[in-house]
Task: inverse folding
């Protein structure tokens, strides 16, 4: 293995300290708990191996998100290869299973929203997640997905129109109330 | 709905709302009125094994505590990251591998039946047949129609737009050897949500858990008293008879006389997907007649 300077090592450690939680959260929002750990670890291994290519802040985090996205895509391809039956089910458009820990904590409304987000076309889905869940500005999203800021803006609006057509208005009020009531009753 | 309303809805549904929670185990005193009990279920299907005596040897750790969503999961994923960083550290430094092993390797397996059932029904809700099967004993799988039967059932549910919304599973009885858990759920189906109907309440799964495995389950579907039959099932059937009468015999095992049991052949599932979509959205001009 090539030798690495203490400067590079310090830089990597600082990068991990600064962005480890965000990258892990990014992965966890897209795959299950164990897969998220693997994907996050793989992302930082890639970053370590290519430490000279990692841009300086504020572009470090978008770069890591880009790497994590590709790692997850590879991971998902690997998962799909595991079982022919699984492949058939996914070919039907069934969303990847969310982590049970996540599912058990979400309200009915949240689950419906997450399902609707996951049903968006892949690029729209990624942009919506980066916008609403990673809370990134449009310009940074544009940098990650290789589009103009205006195109990202259009995609977000188009995706939200699509979500609005799926999530009928009553879900917001009636659904939330019902869930909160259920949880309070349960405790 | 406005852009802002949708934006708020999506942001509130963030499965991992706060990355800063990473690595911090929530205390028992933390407020949990926002999201309820926190449960960590580390991919049960991949961490379970059966030893030579047939006993379940589970390494799954379930935490019951309080706090915001997902923090329990941070412990596991943070631990994995620490391992990776440690490995990187070893690989880039010389002579610091002293061979010590961590003292936290022997996690005690504790899986509550309700948590196991929660994880199982999450797979059902996601139409994830292989995932659901991984929780079942062979006998339970056979009773569920075998791998093909269970997968077909889930394909039909997905094709006809069924979504199940589970509340948390709770123990309701059992014996010394097994525990019975009830998992209530509401559901949408055949485009009922798009038509403006609220999810139909009153159904539940009753699940028998024995030694860490599900050895039987029963889906107790309510469709009469909650109005699903009158709102959705019957109107859809009448619409089908009027518009695609030739499909009825292919889409129902007992059609057209009874039309209570859907067929789950590949052809039937494809028809269910097309017709239920058409029922809600109108005909797709790209579809063949």
Result:
């Amino acid at each position: 293995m090539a030798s690495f300077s203490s400067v590079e090592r310090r830089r990597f450690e600082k990068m991990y300290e600064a962005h480890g939680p965000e990258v892990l959260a990014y992965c966890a929002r897209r795959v299950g708990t164990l897969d998220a750990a693997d994907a996050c670890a793989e992302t930082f291994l890639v970053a370590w191996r290519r430490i000279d290519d990692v841009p300086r802040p504020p572009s470090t985090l978008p770069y890591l998100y880009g790497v994590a996205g590709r790692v997850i895509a590879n991971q998902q391809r690997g998962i799909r290869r595991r079982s022919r039956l699984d492949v058939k089910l996914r070919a039907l458009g069934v969303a990847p299973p969310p982590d049970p820990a996540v599912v058990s904590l979400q309200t009915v409304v949240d689950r419906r929203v997450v399902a609707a987000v996951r049903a968006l076309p892949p690029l729209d889905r990624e942009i919506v997640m980066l916008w609403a869940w990673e809370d990134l500005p449009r310009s940074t999203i544009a940098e990650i997905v290789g589009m103009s800021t205006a195109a990202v803006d259009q995609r977000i609006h188009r995706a939200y129109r699509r979500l609005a057509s799926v999530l009928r208005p009553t879900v917001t009020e009636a659904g939330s109330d019902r869930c909160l009531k259920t949880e309070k009753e349960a405790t | 709905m406005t852009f802002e309303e949708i934006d708020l809805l999506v942001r509130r549904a963030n499965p991992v709302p706060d990355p800063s929670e990473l690595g911090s185990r929530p205390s028992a005193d933390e407020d949990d009125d926002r999201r309820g009990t926190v449960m960590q279920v580390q991919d049960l299907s991949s961490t379970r094994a059966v030893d030579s005596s047939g006993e379940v040897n589970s390494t799954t750790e379930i935490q019951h505590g309080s706090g915001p969503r997902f923090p329990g999961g941070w412990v596991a994923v943070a631990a994995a990251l620490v391992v990776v960083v440690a490995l990187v550290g070893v690989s880039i430094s010389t002579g610091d591998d002293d061979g010590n092993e961590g003292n936290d390797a022997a996690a005690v397996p504790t899986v509550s039946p309700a948590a196991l059932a929660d994880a199982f029904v999450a797979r059902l809700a996601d139409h994830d047949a292989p995932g659901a099967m991984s929780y079942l004993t062979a006998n339970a799988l056979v009773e569920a129609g075998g791998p093909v039967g269970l997968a077909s059932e889930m394909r039909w549910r997905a094709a006809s737009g069924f979504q199940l919304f589970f509340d948390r599973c709770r123990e309701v009885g059992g014996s010394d050897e097994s525990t019975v858990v009830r998992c209530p759920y509401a559901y949408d189906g055949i485009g009922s949500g798009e038509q403006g109907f609220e999810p139909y309440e009153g159904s539940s799964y009753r699940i028998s858990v024995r030694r860490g495995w599900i050895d039987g389950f029963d889906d107790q579907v309510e469709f009469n008293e909650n109005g699903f039959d009158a709102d959705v099932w019957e109107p859809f059937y009448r619409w089908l008879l009027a518009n695609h009468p030739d499909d009825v015999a292919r889409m129902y095992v007992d059609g057209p006389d009874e039309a209570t049991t859907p067929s789950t052949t590949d052809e039937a599932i494809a028809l269910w997907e097309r017709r239920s979509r058409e029922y809600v959205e109108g005909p797709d001009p790209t579809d063949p007649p």
About this structure: Strands of chain B lie at 38-39, 48-50, 56-58, 64-65, 163-166, 170-174, 178-188, 200-210, 213-220. Chain B touches chain A through 77 residues (CB under 8 Å).
